[in-house]
Automatic annotation (TrEMBL):
This is Cation-transporting P-type ATPase C-terminal domain-containing protein. Keywords: Membrane, Transmembrane, Transmembrane helix. Residues 828-850 have a biased composition (Basic and acidic residues). The chain crosses the membrane at residues 60-79, 267-286, 306-327, 1170-1192, 1213-1238, 1271-1295, 1307-1331, 1343-1364.
Length: 1393
């Protein structure tokens, strides 16, 4: 209760401080609207000419270019000259429709981001007017939550209380609490001193001069209450509004431009026009074929070329392209919103689902066409939710070649690290001495370089025991020991579990630890040896320093050991003692040598030495104990003995070295905390004892950086650290002597006393923690690999940590599989190197930060209440300690040490049973222990083989693979392009980039895109650093990460009090009818939709909405979004779209070639202009669109996608012409032959002007010509039916492009089957009616051969087309093998490939 008083005082004292939620939301709404109106005004003031020009100039954005418009007008004019009014009017009408649609689409594309912003403004306004009154502090992330680089939060005063405000919701005039080691979210000034902070400036400490030679007390840095001078989000908003249209063109838009605009509408048009004009001129000058007798210049030079070029005009192609793309988006949007019945019966929701045996039954995915149609109509009206026009999600996902993830914690990994290894020193029993000989000798081998090993010690069989733990993939915290016989070590583990519960996981220590860590972060940045010189990475530094405190909740480990929730009830916190020291120069030098030996491109990071001790009084009895956690270097300097599971033993130089070796290796790749303990004679009070005892004041101990100096300062008779192997035991305290420790006047309150209190401790053990990859991500990586999509992780951490985690995800980690984007500092001299080394430490600290809890994890709900209530009080008084600061500072990687110092109090005093004893099993029987001993030695051997314990840090790699990047790949973002241009393409094929800043990541995405990669970016929607990256990618997916928890028993935040507030409000106000359809889509009972509907308006929802403006999809991490499923859906649709366009293009080309050849043969056009317009606007598009449906095929997700091709490739062009020419050659030949046979039957030679109409109203003065025109009319009527019949039969081979006709029945595509039958039926009836009306029956006997050639050729067309498809599939299979080989080969210039 005492902790609540300061908070109550502070909330009354600052009742008026800061803004109310309503005012803040209104101000945010006004400022966003102001920026939006300004951009809309700029867009609106453009001249109509510029808007019109913009719609047609960008060749990849617009399906209608200036040349196409010009040719259409030219063709219309030519037809008007010849008096063909109907075809000319049809062309003009279609062109007008195209122009209208394309201009409108372009305007919708340019204003799409404005509409999406307007939608966000609407939600903001709703929140301000209706929902913000219900928001409680619990709806914001917990104040004590560990920091994560994926989540941008800021302590802010709202409604007089401090809340953890999402960055996007901060506004001008907000009162924020700036904590030591944190970055200012925007320009702000401190209220009292008026000190000004620029945006992204770090609040650090003032230099103290040289490190002390003896322990000194340091006051913590105060929290600063600052007033924001501008709204931070506006900068990101401006970037989004300016750059939203600058994404690279999709591969399908490029191919559409190449095929339709360049090849057909430019080259094809010019070729057809030139050939027909030349042949017409030859005919006019009498050089035509013998069949040609009568000429008319308008017919020869205008109508004949017009009939040849009309199929090559855009006609309804732009309309078809736009509507089909919108249909694909509508299908995807419907898929995202339709609840899917999962096949998996797993209780846990999954982000990426398994597609091996798909967890979604894709064949039965019920996308109701009515729903898709409704969404399609909304898209036509301008719906901008998925940014369908500026970032075509379906086209991008259909051709994706790289999925880039820029955030790790809470997205790729679980948000909290979990324990991975437990280290302790263990003494084998005397009975087991023989069995353990092997392990003893092997453990000695670790210390071969220690010359004087105590023989007695050898015989005692001291071994370093390392127990591995496995994380349960379905739960963020659950753990299990790998070794089924771990209970043989229960005596060694008990003190560890108690220390965890009393120090690391005690709610009472979180606040102090958080403030201490903030202070240490700021101090670490002061040290010139610890701070990165480049400003560019200052942000990464802070992020890393926050890592001090990973929010390492170890409650689960204590529970596994056997402690219950009530194990700590007997203990009361008497005081907390925090100390730190600067790195020893020899440590810095050693790590430089180590890094050099590993050939790492970035230096190894050393945790900043610190420790946190708690003084606990046990009741009844009143015994005082000191539990310490911290980095192992500082803890081991405090310890004289270790607990071996039975008794205290002196900590020899060899044991110390074993522990340090383990720590140094573990600290490189994980977060390692050491634990120690000692009983006390007297307590502690005053400022050094922490805020609880001192009424709010607080001081920290800064120790000398050299342990020798530190030791000289202590009375040698009490503490002999230099005493070799026979350490004096005179300082041990018996339990009896503690019975008289009640007297208060003996309590320490000076630096000297507090320092001595920390000496003579008993070493208990160490725990390493690591972030675990989520299972669905591991599966996702597998499936993407199969689909030849590279999963690329842009890690903010250094190479060692990044590679360890990338291995957990299943990414390749060979010798040339990662690149550091951090630029090399210029090496001036050795001194500079050591500076750089020191720099690394903070970076390392930063790495840890990502994993740290801002405050230590509270143990239970009560503790979290204490934290949240006392934190504001501490903030309001700068002199009081701020838990959050501590947490931030504790982010340092060393903070792991801090976790373990409390553990061995009970075991070290055998008379004093562990509080958890009653919950633990009794002592294991001796036989079991004997067996255990041989296992110990095996385990010890195993540990060594895993490089957990090896001879010396200087001679061995930290983990069990060579971390050096021997491929000599480039280092630093500025060296990537030169490497790609001059050496090889390996940088495009690696899956891991380390030391990434936001700007370096953006530049790397740009480089990938310029080399033809299609990049989809996956990032956190809670981070303020991702806007530029989201805009750079071809399209982006924003994921709300899982938030780290201060403890597994405390929710990161809760929305239960405002659940479905928007939905309930709509129902009450009667506005929900319009949304009934949405509910049908989104709220089905049979499953969960991939995208959560926005039924709840909360602070985190608004933050996600604002930060994800440039993203096509924004989801929560626990929504069951299956990326593999939407990629599969997009691939299918994109293949269908391209199939449709290819078929349409082939039909257009074949009709044009028919009419060109007719002109060359001096025949009238087989198809008149009006017939051509009809064919290209009705039957051909209908068949083509029906071919866009692609059946579900598992092979689709095993194909490699092609790279962007923007240049003309003669070989590819020749292959396409040959392949598709073969498919339509039979059609062209059979039509021409039958047409010639029809006309040769007429007694007259064809030579007169011919009308274009289907029903030929031939006004012919010559009765002799009547017969000729009758045959021509019959030939054209039959040809129309014949061409459609051929088109239908050729389309058989387009239904299943990858399968032969006999392998897969084409009629599984029911839409195509129905379309073709209806078209054939309709045109057969029309043809028969025309012939009957003209009494042409008596001519049939003469023309049976021509009719047979015309209609019989369709079967031959299908056979030839199938053979061409067979050849095409062979080439494609070869290409696929080559692409897969390219995808898997990374050797670059050194490769034999």
């Amino acid at each position: 209760m005492a902790a609540e008083n300061p908070e109550r005082r502070s909330s009354q004292e600052h009742q008026q401080r800061g803004l109310t939620t309503k005012v803040a939301l209104r101000r945010l709404h006004e400022e966003i609207e102001r920026v939006l109106l300004e951009h809309e005004r700029q867009c609106g003031t453009e001249s109509s000419y510029r808007k019109l020009r913009a719609a047609f100039v960008k060749r990849y954005d617009s399906p209608l270019g200036w040349l196409s418009i010009g040719t259409s007008l030219l063709a219309s004019g030519a037809l008007l000259i010849t008096g063909m009014l109907w075809p000319a009017l049809c062309l003009l009408a279609i062109l007008s429709l195209d122009l209208f649609v394309v201009v409108r689409e372009n305007n919708l594309r340019r204003t799409e981001i404005f509409r999406k912003t307007r939608h966000a403004l609407g939600e903001l306004q709703l929140a301000e007017q209706h929902f913000s009154d219900d928001w409680q502090p619990t709806n914001y992330p917990h104040l004590s939550n560990p920091m994560s680089p994926c989540v941008s939060l800021q302590w802010t005063y709202r409604d007089g209380k401090i809340v953890n405000m999402p960055w996007a919701l901060l506004v001008r005039g907000d009162y924020i609490v700036l904590r030591p080691g944190h970055i200012s979210p925007g320009p702000c000034h401190e209220l009292e001193t008026k000190k000004f902070f620029t945006a992204n400036e770090i609040y650090g400490a003032a230099p103290h001069g040289d490190p002390p030679v003896k322990p000194v007390a340091r006051p913590p840095l105060p929290d600063l209450v600052c007033c924001l001078e501008s709204t931070p989000y506006l900068d990101n908003l401006t970037i989004c509004l300016k750059k939203s249209l600058k994404r690279p063109p999709t591969i399908y838009n490029q191919q559409r431009y190449l095929l339709v605009t360049k090849y057909i509408q430019q080259w094809g048009f010019i070729s057809a026009l030139v050939i027909t004009l030349i042949s017409g001129l030859l005919r006019l000058h009498g050089y035509g074929l013998p069949t040609d007798e009568k000429h008319n210049w308008r017919f020869v030079l205008i109508e004949s070329p017009a009939a040849a070029i009309i199929p090559l005009l855009p006609l309804i192609f732009p309309l078809m392209w736009i509507s089909m793309n919108l249909w694909g988006i509508a299908r995807l949007q419907c898929f995202l919103k339709t609840p899917q019945a999962a096949l998996e019966k797993s209780t846990s929701k999954s982000f990426e689902e398994d597609l091996d045996t798909p967890s979604y039954d894709y064949q039965n995915v019920s996308l109701l066409r009515s729903n898709v149609f409704r969404i399609w109509m909304q898209l036509w009206r301008g719906d901008s939710e998925l940014l369908p026009r500026s970032a075509n999600l379906v086209q991008v996902l259909g051709s994706i070649s790289a999925l880039c993830c820029v955030d790790k914690k809470g997205i790729l990994s679980w948000p909290n690290p979990t324990a991975e290894k437990v280290f302790f020193l263990h003494n084998t029993d005397e009975e087991a001495r023989e069995d353990g000989a092997g392990s003893q000798s092997s453990s000695q081998s670790e210390s071969d370089d220690v010359p004087d090993v105590d023989e007695d010690h050898k015989e005692q069989g001291i071994v370093a025991e390392v127990l591995d733990l496995t994380h349960d993939q379905h739960c963020p915290f659950r753990l299990e020991f790998d070794d089924h016989e771990w209970k043989a070590h229960i005596k060694s583990l008990k003190p560890l579990g108690l220390a965890i519960l009393l120090n690391t996981c005690s709610p009472l220590t979180h606040e102090h630890y958080a403030q201490f860590c903030g202070h240490v972060t700021a101090v670490a940045m002061l040290d010139k040896d610890l701070v990165p010189v480049t400003n560019r990475y200052a942000y990464a530094l802070i992020e890393s320093s926050k890592s001090f405190l990973h929010g390492r909740c170890l409650c689960e480990l204590a529970k596994q050991i056997g402690f219950t929730d009530h194990a700590t009830d007997r203990f009361a916190l008497e005081g907390q003692l925090a100390s730190y020291r600067h790195l020893q120069p020899d440590v810095v030098r050693r790590d430089i040598r180590f890094a050099r030996q590993l050939q790492l491109s970035s230096k190894v990071k050393v945790p900043f030495p610190h420790s946190l001790s708690v003084v606990m009084r046990e009741n009844p009895g009143g015994y005082l104990s000191l539990f310490t956690q911290g980095t192992a270097d500082i803890i081991l300097d405090c310890c004289d003995d270790f607990w071996d599971g039975i008794d205290l033993r002196p900590l020899s130089a060899q044991d110390r070295k074993r522990a340090l070796d383990f720590y140094q290796r573990s600290a490189l790749t994980s977060y390692c905390t050491a634990f120690a303990y000692r009983p006390l004679r007297h307590g502690i009070h005053g400022a050094l004892s922490g805020p609880q005892r001192s009424g709010g004041e607080c001081l920290y101990l800064e120790l000398p950086p050299e342990s020798k100096l530190r030791m000289q300062h202590v009375d040698k008779t009490h503490c002999d650290f230099q005493g070799g192997h026979h350490v004096k035991l005179g300082h041990s305290i018996s339990t009896d002597s503690l019975l008289f420790s009640e007297s208060k006047d003996e309590e320490c309150n000076d630096v000297e006393g507090c320092f001595e209190m920390q000496c003579h401790q008993v070493f208990i053990g160490m725990v390493t923690m690591q972030y675990q990859a989520q299972n669905d991500i591991v599966r996702l990586v597998e499936h993407l690999e199969r689909a030849c999509i590279r999963f690329v992780h842009f890690s903010k951490e250094n190479e060692l940590r990044s590679r360890v985690f990338s291995e957990k995800m299943g990414l390749e980690s060979g010798w040339n599989c990662h690149i550091s984007l951090l630029s090399e500092p210029e090496p001036d001299n050795e001194k500079d190197r050591s500076t750089a080394k020191a720099k690394d430490v903070p970076e390392h600290i930063g790495d840890g930060l990502e994993k740290n809890y801002l405050l230590g994890p509270p143990n239970n709900l009560e503790s979290s209440k204490t934290l949240s209530s006392s934190a504001p009080g501490a903030i309001s008084n700068p002199d009081e300690c701020n838990p959050l600061n501590a947490a931030l500072n504790s982010d340092d990687p060393q903070s792991p040490d801090g976790e373990g110092s409390k553990e061995s109090s009970q075991d070290s005093t055998p008379k004093n049973n562990l509080p958890g004893d009653s919950e633990l099993e009794g002592e294991p029987d001796p036989n079991k222990h004997k067996q255990r001993h041989s296992l110990d030695s095996a385990m010890d051997e195993n540990c060594r083989s895993l490089s957990t314990l090896t001879e010396s840090t200087d001679q061995s790699a930290p983990i069990n693979f060579d971390m050096s990047n021997r491929a000599k790949l480039p280092r630093g973002i500025e060296n990537i392009r030169p490497h790609l241009e001059q050496v090889d393409n390996v940088p495009l094929q690696v899956s891991l980039f380390t030391d990434c800043s936001a700007e370096a990541t953006r530049q790397m995405l740009d480089i990938m895109q310029s080399y033809g990669e299609i990049v989809v970016c996956l990032g956190s929607s809670a981070s303020n650093a991702n806007a530029d990256i989201f805009l750079q990618a071809d399209c982006s997916i924003a994921v709300e990460p899982l938030y780290p928890q201060v403890c597994q028993d405390v929710d990161a935040y809760t929305e239960s009090n405002i659940q479905h507030n928007k939905l309930l409000w709509q129902r009450q106000s009667g506005k929900s009818k319009a949304n009934d359809d949405e509910e049908l889509l989104e709220g089905g009972l049979q499953g969960c939709a991939m995208q959560t509907p926005a039924h709840t308006i909360s602070p985190l929802y608004l933050s996600r909405l604002l930060n994800s403006l440039p993203c096509s999809i924004a989801v929560c991490r626990d929504d069951p979004l299956s990326l593999v499923a939407i990629i599969e859906l997009s691939r299918r649709f994109s293949l269908g779209l391209w199939n449709c366009i290819q078929y349409w293009a082939c039909c257009a080309g074949s009709i044009s070639i028919l009419n060109v050849l007719c002109a060359c043969l001096s025949l009238p056009p087989l198809l008149t202009p009006l017939l051509v317009i009809y064919l290209m606007c009705v039957p051909v598009p209908l068949i083509a669109i029906s071919l866009a449906h692609i059946d579900v095929d598992p092979k689709i997700m095993n194909r490699a996608t092609s790279k962007k091709q923007t240049d003309y490739d003669s070989r590819a062009f020749a292959f396409v012409m040959w392949c598709y020419g073969c498919k339509f050659i039979v059609l062209v030949v059979s039509m021409l032959v039958s047409y010639w046979m029809f006309l040769s039957e007429s007694r007259l030679n064809p030579a007169a002007e011919v009308s274009e109409e289907l029903s030929l109203d031939v006004e012919d003065d010559d009765d002799d010509d009547e017969d000729f025109y009758q045959f021509l009319y019959f030939a054209r009527s039959s040809a129309l039916l014949g061409i459609i019949l051929h088109f239908v039969f050729i389309s058989f081979t387009f239904v299943h492009r990858d399968h032969a006709l006999w392998q897969r029945n084409p009629f599984t595509n029911r839409i195509w089957g129905i379309t073709c039958w209806l078209l054939l039926l309709f045109h057969t009836v029309i043809c028969v009616l025309q012939l009957m009306l003209k009494d042409f029956d008596e001519q049939f006997p003469k023309l049976w051969a021509a009719i047979l050639v015309m209609f019989g050729g369709c079967l031959l067309s299908m056979i030839v087309s199938e053979l061409a498809k067979f050849q095409e599939n062979k080439v494609n299979a070869r290409y696929q093998r080559r692409a897969r080989l390219d995808f898997g080969t990374k050797l670059g210039m050194n490769s034999p490939f």
